[in-house]
Amino acid sequence: MGHVSRREFVQGTVLAHLTVSCCNRAFLAAESALNDGAASPVVDTHLHCFAGSDARFPYHPRAPYRPEEAATPEHLLRCMEQAGVDFAIVVHPEPYQDDHRYLEHCLKVGGSRLKGTCLFFADRPGSVAGMRPLVERNSGQIVAARVHAYAPDRLPPFGSQELRELWRTATELGLAMQLHFEPRYAPGFEPLIREFSETTVIIDHLGRPMQGTTEEHDQVIAWSKYPNTVMKIASLPDQNSYPHRDVRPIIRRLTEAYGADRMIYGGGFNAQADGGSYRAYRQRVIQLLEHLPDSQRAKILGGTAARLFGFAAVS
Predict the structure, then answer these.
(1) How far is 232 from 238, CA to CA, in rounded Å?
(2) Taking the CA atoms of the chain, what radius of gyration do you get in angstroms?
(3) Is residue 147 in a domain?
(4) Count of domains for the chain
(5) CB neighbours (10 Å) of residue 5?
């Protein structure tokens, strides 16, 4: 390597600083907007906790996968503190099926900073009956019931009275319905979105645009016509992975359709996360929202979720 003059070194340092500053500008602006008002906390609305090998909280016999590494609520709270996340929602994961003991443990550890979602199955006798006692035991801390539809052998019973009963039970308990699905299965949910028009419907992971055709995902974007639908920016796709599509135009279309008052964000926590990686994920979300003013980004980063899920403002 050749000799680098002091002038070249200084110029290089300044250039690097400017590059970092440009990348961080949107993030810092949104952080500033959040800090300016107590009404806009930062709320991560999508993360999973796993007990790993802890024998007190075994995975369900029907678990589709079994994470070996623990992602505990204690680890989560440390990451939240380091990354400036005020509140979070623990999305009850499939390895536990409708056994919510570990979720309840997480909510007890997290106190007022954590809330959770539940998972019950319309096509399993007796499963939905467990929703009411779970919600009553954890007063104010269970905020949604999740339904999955993303594999042919793991679909809810579309068009059945059983699925309607699950939706009705969640509605009576004041829960949102949280939908995780591939776009091709969207038509099966739409009649219930219309029927239960007062029930908030959370659409996970941008409606999974990369797992469907543009035409299929257009149906999900069109759900914005229903005032009870809310879009979640989570599970950000990697353009370097199949199908190699840029997510930025999709997010722009979603923000135009749903607006900041009906959008929330989540993600960045896992067993390997630390405060830096957790904050970096939020920074990526902010950069994808750079077309919005700071006030709207602040809503998506927490203001809207705080309103929907009853998190108190922070001072």
Answers:
(1) 17
(2) 21
(3) yes
(4) 1
(5) 9
Distance CA 154, CA 151 (A): 5
User: In angstroms, rounded to a whole number, what is the distance separating the alpha carbons of residues 186 and 89?
Assistant: 24
Residue 315 lies in a domain: no
Classify residue 96 by its DSSP letter: G
All residues at 6 or more sequence positions from 220 whose CB lies less than 8 Å from its CB, including other chains: 183, 186, 203, 207, 209
Rounded to whole angstroms, the Cα distance separating 263 from 233 reads 7
Domain span including residue 69:
6-309
pLDDT at 313: 64
In a domain, 157, yes or no: yes
CA–CA dist 183, 213 (Å, integer): 8
Q: How far is CA 306 from the centre of its chain?
A: 13
Residue 1 lies in a domain: no
* Whole-angstrom distance, CA of residue 180 vs CA of residue 183: 9
Q: How many helices (H) and strands (E) does the chain have?
A: 11, 8
Lowest mean per-residue pLDDT among 43-52, 79-88, 134-143, 146-155: 146-155
CA 131 to the chain's CA centroid: 21
Reference 215, options 180, 238, 187; nearest CA is: 187
Is-contact 150 181, C-beta < 8 A?
yes
CA angle at residue 93 from 146 to 249, to 5 degrees? Answer: 65
The answer to whether 77 and 109 are in contact (CB under 8 A) is: yes
Domain of 245: which CATH number? 3.20.20.140
Give the total residue count for the chain. 315
For 106-154, write each residue's pLDDT tens digit. 999 999 999 999 999 999 999 999 999 999 999 999 999 999 999 888 8
Q: Which residue has the tokens 């009956």?
A: 129
